[in-house]
Design goal:
alpha+beta; two-stranded antiparallel sheet
Length: 149
């Protein structure tokens, strides 16, 4: 017996677990050799992972749509300012589950270069830490010499 999309439909006894796990549109794993309790455990785990996968796909879809809307808005703002005869450079950095996106647009030389500053790229400036560590080391060395003399 088959349904309209040419898949076989085999009625199974009431309460029995399925004997195959779908892996996609055409692939499936035959579980008929397993006892029913093991099939139920595998099917339960498979269903939970499919729900997790669907939730993750929805999260990434939301992040993608948000990024697209942000880019559209920044591009529209840049276009409006540029058309009014003003110079504009817009930079935007965003980190989401998709990854990190760095955007620079405008009609200035800075925007045309496409280079982001260290603060725009999210790099930490370690120079103050090095300076304080150097001062601390000098104070420590001075204290050691002062205690010996």
């Amino acid at each position: 017996m088959s349904n309209s999309d040419s898949r076989d439909i085999v009625p199974r006894p009431q309460g029995a677990s399925p004997t195959t796990v779908p892996l996609g549109l055409t692939a499936a794993i035959d579980l008929s050799f397993l006892p029913e309790d093991q099939r139920n455990a595998l099917l339960h785990d498979h269903a939970r992972k499919m729900l997790d996968l669907g939730a993750k796909a929805q999260e990434l879809g939301v992040d993608t749509n948000t990024l697209r809307l942000t880019l559209d808005q920044l591009a529209a703002t840049t276009r409006e300012v540029s058309e009014s005869g003003n110079s504009v450079t817009i930079s935007h950095t965003q980190t989401t589950k998709i990854g990190r996106t760095e955007i620079k647009m405008g009609n200035t030389e800075e925007a045309k270069s496409g280079r982001m500053t260290r603060s725009q790229t999210g790099d930490r400036d370690w120079n103050p830490y090095y300076i304080f560590a150097g001062i601390g080391a000098l104070v420590l060395i001075a204290l050691i010499f002062a205690s010996r003399h």
